[in-house]
Design goal:
alpha/beta, 5 helices
C-alpha cells in the first residue's frame, strides 16, 4: 500500500486531501497541531506537529522516521496568515509568525523527512498565486505573500538538489477554509482532487 504524509490534516485543504487519498486506497500519515476533528480510519495515522515549534518538528519527524521506512509522497498543506482581512498594513509580528510556519518550519520538517521519501517519490507544498513576482496582484497580506514567495524559492532549490524526486509548488486558488473565508468559490475537495491528480502522475519537477 502506498503512503502519503500530509501536514495540516485537521482542517481545510489538508483534511480534504487526506480523505481523498484514503478514498483512493492509500495509507495516510497526517500531521497537525490538533488531533481533534481528524480522520478516524484504519489506514490513517495521526502525528502531532506544530511548525512554529522546533521541538515539535523534531519529535514528529523522529516518530515518522521510526515508524515508516519509506513514503511515496510528502504534501505540505499546513500554513498560516495572521494579518487582518484585506490588510495592507505591514506587521513585523505577523511576518515573523508567517515565516516561522510557512517557510522555516516547513523547510525544517521537509528536510528531516527527505531520507524516507522514495527515489521516485514526490514532494508538494501548497503555495499561492499571491506569491507570484510576475503576476503581482496587490499589496494585501504582505507577510503571507513574502512567506510563500520564499517557500517557492526553497522548492526551486530543492528540485535542483533532488534528481529523482519530483518537487511541486501548488496554487489551490481561493478556497473556503478558515484562512480563505466563507465567500471563497472553491470547496476544499476541489484542490484536494487536483493535488491527488498531480502527485500520482509523472510531471516535470
Amino acid at each position: 500500500m502506498k503512503k502519503v504524509l500530509i501536514t495540516g490534516t485537521s482542517r481545510g485543504i489538508g483534511l480534504a486531501t487526506a480523505k481523498k487519498f484514503l478514498d483512493e486506497g492509500w495509507f495516510v500519515l497526517g500531521a497537525s497541531t490538533k488531533a481533534v476533528g481528524t480522520i478516524k480510519h484504519a489506514n490513517y495515522k495521526h502525528y502531532s506537529l506544530d511548525l512554529n515549534n522546533s521541538k515539535s518538528i523534531d519529535n514528529c519527524a523522529k516518530r515518522v522516521l521510526k515508524n515508516n521506512s519509506q513514503i511515496d509522497v510528502l504534501i505540505n498543506c499546513a500554513g498560516t496568515s495572521l494579518e487582518p482581512d484585506e490588510s495592507n498594513k505591514f506587521s513585523i509580528a505577523a511576518l515573523r509568525k508567517d515565516l516561522e510556519v510557512n517557510l522555516i518550519g516547513t523547510i525544517d520538517f521537509t528536510e528531516r523527512i527527505l531520507p524516507i521519501i522514495k527515489p521516485s517519490g514526490q514532494i508538494l507544498a501548497v503555495s499561492s498565486m499571491m506569491s507570484s513576482l510576475v503576476d503581482f496582484s496587490g499589496d494585501d497580506y504582505p507577510a503571507y505573500r513574502i512567506s510563500k514567495t520564499a517557500l517557492n524559492m526553497y522548492l526551486r532549490t530543492l528540485a535542483y538538489r533532488l534528481k529523482n524526486i519530483t518537487v511541486s509548488a501548488f496554487d489551490p486558488g481561493w478556497v473556503r477554509t478558515d484562512m480563505g473565508g466563507k465567500d471563497a468559490p472553491r470547496d476544499p475537495k476541489v484542490p484536494a482532487d487536483e493535488i491527488y491528480a498531480l502527485t500520482t502522475k509523472k510531471h516535470p519537477t
